[in-house]
Amino acid sequence: MAEFSALMTGLNNVLWHDSVLLIVLATGVLFTVWSRFSQYRALTHGIRVIRGSYDDPSDPGAINHFQALSAALSATVGLGNIGGVALAIALGGPGAIFWMWIVGVVGMALKLTEVSLSMLYRNTDDPDNPHGGPMWVASKGLARMSPRLASTGRVVGGIFCLTLLVSTATGGNMFQAWNVGEITEEYFGIPSIVSGIILALVVGMVIIGGIKRIGAVAGRLVPIMVTLYLLAGMYVLIASAGQIPEMLLLIVKSAFTPQEASGAFLGGTAGYAFLYGMKRALFSNEAGQGSSPIAHSAAKTDEPVREAVVAGLEPFIDTIVVCTFTALVILSTGIWNRSPEASFDSAPEFISVGTSEWSLETLRAPARDAETWRVGDTVFMIYRGEPNPESANRLHRLEGQIIDESGQLWIEWPTFSSNTQPELDGPGVYATYLGATLTAKAFDSVTPGLGKWLVTLAVWLFAVSTMISWSYYGEQGVIYLFGERQVLLYKVVFCALILVATWGRIDSAEELDSLTGVGTGVMLFANIPIMWIFGAQAMRAYADYMTRLKEGRMGPDHPPPSLEDLISGRDVR
Known about the structure:
The N and C termini lie far apart (about 50 Å).
């Protein structure tokens, strides 16, 4: 298992290398300029389209534009919006948020392009159940380009589907279920497997009904969960409204200048803020990865670009709106650069345990200010050692674990390497808050208990929404590879994996996250070249659509339907 984990880590380092992120960003800038800033059209025409004025029951497709957007958003608005933003700030500082905004903006153009291609090449042999995605673009597009490339197109499409299934099983399913089980057991003492059984039943009842039921559930669930989360964020921000301008200024300033160390934050360079912000934004909104075009391809429309313009709203909602709320909550509450939770009266000393190998002596855990330590809690202290390129100083974290010895709590520290003798930066001990936990603590700092209930509820809602949409993505991969007959077996396996993830056999989410990174990374490697090869077709289709729209040669042909008909999809039945 150790060798497998090392292999996955090595592959992630290659697939998510800094240069790859820069290439994706450059691709987004290219299509932003090429489309003459299509972001504007997404925020204007796209909103009118999802309101239902252009919905037509006679068009090919299974769900309306609003449901297609909701299904795609239900896959992207998830743990990345809660935990990913916290991770970006913890590692890259406030400046990381600025670069998340930039990725969110150029991601709108990436989404428009990849969805345009998927709509142009989608399979509508069954008009009520279309199939689309990068696998169909590669297969049909390369075959049209040259008959000799037909087999190559099928192979590229097959590779994409295999990586899609890996990502579906891990990040889109097991990782979500594992997190739900862990946070529910942590806060409420409910065994993880109980959460898994409930999740499997809920998800199974939704996905058994196919894309129409997924679209109907997502159409109701996504607005509710996003609204609840934003309302809670507004409550926190109202309590610290005077700090918001200062926080926004800090975000912009830190994006271009180094951020000094403060409390739990070690400091950060502008370069690392850039990289962490980009990486977390791409993980959150999935721009360029080719996953959400699969959901958008189910939309009822005879105009491919119309659904693509709707898709441009996705990164805006996910990254510009939801991620920004999380960031402002974390920054305004000061949880990211908080003071130590406890301090030693007599700080532990570093012990040399070999050539350039060090550890801290094991001492009893000091009393915590607000609550008590628990066995298994992870803590850290800050020490000065070798230069740290990420923080532009010599500060590092040393993480230890709370252990029980003879009924007393002690902190056990690991061995680490340093060519210079390390020195503690102070006697303070910090609790380690990872991802969603840091966000929960930010809410708790305003109203005790708010984070516990809000983040637990959000994790459940976000996980269920992510799982039902990713189940559809995987289903389309199965159909491409094996045909319709294997779909039922796939859905049974999908639900069974939920139980596997929550059974207690997985010790940490790192292995799942690493495997997911490989799947999504390879998807990126497959999808970005497809966008380069066929991007000109998407841009021509976009220009033609906008010309006809400006000249008044297309709808809307009817007033918008009622909200109930829109959300339920009755307007296209």
